[in-house]
Amino acid sequence: MGEIITRFPPSPTGYLHVGGARTALFNWLYARKTGGTFILRIEDTDLERSTEASVQAIFDGLEWLGIDWDQGPFYQTQRFDLYKEVIDKLLEDGHAYWCTCTPDEIDVMRETARANGAKPKYNGKCRHRNLGPGNGAVVRFKVPLSGSTAFDDMVKGRISIPNAELDDFIIQRSDGSPTYNLAVAVDDLTMKVNTILRGDDHVNNTPKQVLILQAMGETVPTYGHVPMVLGADKARLSKRHGATSVTEYRDMGILPDAMINYLARLGWSCGDQEFFTREDLIEKFDPDHIGRSPGVFDVEKLLAINHDHIQQKPTAEVTEALLPYLEKAGIVAGDRVQLEKAVKTLAPRSRTLVDMAENARFYFNGITGYDAKMAKKAFKPEAAEVLSVMKAALGETEFTQEALSATFKAVVEKLEVGFGKVAMPMRLAVSGTGASPDMYEMLEVLGQEETLKRIDDAVAHIRSLG
RNA sequence: GUCCCCAUCGUCUAGCCUGGUCCAGGACACCGGCCUUUCACGCCGGCGACAGGGGUUCAAAUCCCCUUGGGGACGCCA
After folding, report:
1. DSSP state at residue A78
2. CA A276, CA A270: separation in Å to the nearest integer?
3. I need a surface site. Which of A46, A85, A280, A429 has the fewest CB within 10 A?
């Protein structure tokens, strides 16, 4: 086939949703894997619903995911002259005709057909009337009355649809604008797109596009229809199932690499492999392994894979990604070195960057109080004594894990108590809670000065209780 | 209603094209245990599926047919 040329053609009528993101990803991956070209095309022929804000939202979504394009963005509204030319040619060659039937008349046709148990279709009334352009007239494509139109789908195999199922669909609206099927066929042809991975919901449009291309005497691209993404109830994914916009997942603290990993594995597989870096995906993506059945979007699994990425990714990169979430949470981290150390302690216990930012709060913003349940156990009067001893010992300790460990051991021996008697008050004093990172790692991140200060605060707090 | 597509654990899936190595493998979730200074991580183990029925075959999750179920499409939306 030569160079693979794929495209992603969203219509700017809303944000980038996860289903769209996945088809964009598949096309992008295939182009990147094969060293081909990936085109972005904005399908804005619906002047009523297309908005500038949506275009921007789609760019934002793609940018966040790290999906870049080689050509475009092309806007269909800027290509009306081209569509017009093709439509005129189709008219001229007898592959299309003018129609003056009103929407109301067509409604009646459809009602009638439906009542007879047939497929609701336009009945071809104007097909042989040899009408010319007139106000309110549309142009319809002349679909063969018999036979069938087939194509070999990359994921589903050969698909064949009887032409009798199709009606003479509109290719030019009464306002002169082209409709979807016409514009797509023309664009894919002129942009030399040869591989089209798109949602399942387009299967029924494919014969129409094939027919247009054939009428133009052109060859058709290779199609691959990817099954839909469903919600937990197996219905098509929609807002009522929760977040459907990719940027909502960004806001939830999902790493872009985790998002594309999850999205790729939803409907595509590579043996038993679950974890993929971006490079892995590009190297291993193969449309042959796109599944044929629809899949349910499972946030739990997304969170799990996000956790894996948080742990696998180099600390410096996770730290960089965390920055905006810290800012949003109002957390002012210390220097970068300290922050990275903190991130290292937090990674195993954070499923999202939002979690991680929240878990980092005690390191940098100080503590606002002590967990009540924990305080009842750990802050008994004698704890003040233990903490004082710890403070003295820590004042002489170098804040490295080995030295810290040795100091704790020495204090425990000197006091002749269980380790918990020392660790519990310390943990609470320093973190404010009973759940924190490993003691030595935590103290190392916190540093000597801050640790001693917090111990003082805790001692004062315990004594104030009487 | 008509047409198109799909059908392996609760979920994502491997296996299916090129039948036997599958009394079906992995992951998420769930349950139990281990580790342990907390919470986690990690590790080990458990639960759990070939929609149903017919064929073809020495042999079927794998091939064929039917049924059932699910999804999609049927717009001067894309």
Report:
1. G
2. 10
3. A85
- Note whether A454 and A424 are within 8 A (CB): no
Question: What is each CA distance from A137 to A20, A126, A128, A130, A182, in whole angstroms?
Answer: 34, 11, 15, 12, 17
Query: Which DSSP category does A205 fall into?
Result: T
| Residue A284 annotated to the active site | no
Distance from CA(A32) to C1'(B77), angstroms, rounded: 31
Question: What are the pLDDT tens digits along chain A (466 aa)?
Answer: 589 999 999 999 999 999 999 999 999 999 999 999 999 999 998 888 999 999 999 999 999 999 999 998 999 999 999 999 999 999 999 999 999 999 999 999 999 888 888 889 999 899 999 898 988 899 999 999 999 999 999 999 999 999 999 999 999 999 999 999 999 999 999 999 999 999 999 999 999 999 999 999 999 999 999 999 999 888 888 888 888 899 999 999 999 999 999 999 999 999 999 999 999 999 999 999 999 999 999 999 999 999 999 999 999 999 999 999 999 999 998 789 999 999 999 999 999 999 999 999 999 998 888 998 888 888 888 889 999 999 999 999 999 999 999 999 999 989 888 888 899 999 999 999 989 999 999 999 999 999 999 999 999 998 887 6
What pTM was computed for the model?
0.94
Q: What positions of strand B are covered by protein, i.e. any atom < 7 Å from a CB?
A: 1-8, 10-15, 25-29, 37-42, 70-78
Distance A118 CA to B64 C1' (A): 30
| Measured CA distances, A446 to A387, A395, A396 (Å) | 17, 14, 16
> Token digits for A236?
């098509």
Give the span between the Cα atoms of A206 and A458, in whole angstroms. 70
Nucleotide nearest A272, CA–C1', reads B26
Q: Which of A89, A119, A239, A414 is catalytic?
A: A239
CA distances in angstroms from A327 to A310, A320, A360, A377, A446, listed in the order given: 19, 12, 12, 34, 19
Assigned token pair, A365: 């913003």
Q: What is the DSSP letter of A164?
A: G
- Beta strands (DSSP E) in A289-383 are 295-296
- A108, two tokens: 């009646």
Beta pairing class for A148-153 and A157-162: antiparallel
Q: Which tokens is A180 given?
A: 């979807």
> Which residue shows structure tokens 């390191």?
A363
Nucleotide nearest A401, CA–C1', reads B37
- Nucleotide showing the shortest C1' distance to residue A180 CA: B78
Of A286, A302, A312, A257, the residue nearest A65 (C-alpha): A257
